[in-house]
Amino acid sequence: MKFMQENSGNSLTIQGYEKGQVIINGASYHSSLIVTPSKVITQWRPVEFSDLTENDFIPLIDLQPEMILLGTGASHKFPHPSLTRAIMQQRIGLDAMNTAAACRTYNILMAEGRRVAAALFMI
Fold it and tell me: How does residue 10 score in pLDDT terms, banded at 50, 70 and 90?
C-alpha cells in the first residue's frame, strides 16, 4: 500500500507499507522499528506484538514525543495497561492500531509538525 510519493521537507515520511515491509524516504525496512520525523531506530527489540514488554517503551519515552503510535502488525491489538503505565505517567498519548493505519496516521501528524513517534511491527 503506497501512502505518499514525496518527502515533506527534511522529515522522514512513510511512503509505503505491506506486511513484512515499510518504506521510509525510499529505504525499505523489514523488522520492527521506531520512526520519528528525524530518525529511524532499527534496533527495537520486540519482533512481534506478543514479545512486547514494559521496557520496550523506554526508548519511545526517551524521545519525548507528545504522541506514540503503536502499529501492532496486520491486525489491531491492544497492549495490556500494565505495559503502558510509564507512558501514561509521562502524559504521553498512545494510540494502538494496525501497522497500515499507524503509518498513515504518522504521516498526517508528522506533516502537522507534531512530535510523533511510531513503533511499528512488521508481522
Answer: confident
Give me the helices (H) in the chain, please. Answer: 58-62, 81-89, 99-111
Dmax of the chain from CA atoms? Answer: 39
In this predicted structure, the answer to whether residue 4 has a pLDDT above a threshold of 50 is no
Q: Could you tell me which residues come within 8 angstroms of residue 73 by beta carbon, excluding any fewer than 6 positions away?
A: 19, 48, 49, 98, 99, 121, 122, 123
Sequence-distant (6+) residues with CB within 8 A of 15 are 2, 3, 4, 5, 23, 24, 25, 26
Q: What pTM was computed for the model?
A: 0.91
CB 16 within 8 A of CB 41: no
Q: Which residues contact 75 (CB under 8 A, 6 or more apart)?
A: 98
Could you please report the per-residue DSSP string of 98-120? -HHHHHHHHHHHHHTT--EEEEE
Q: pLDDT tens digits, residue range 79-105?
A: 999 999 999 999 999 999 999 999 999
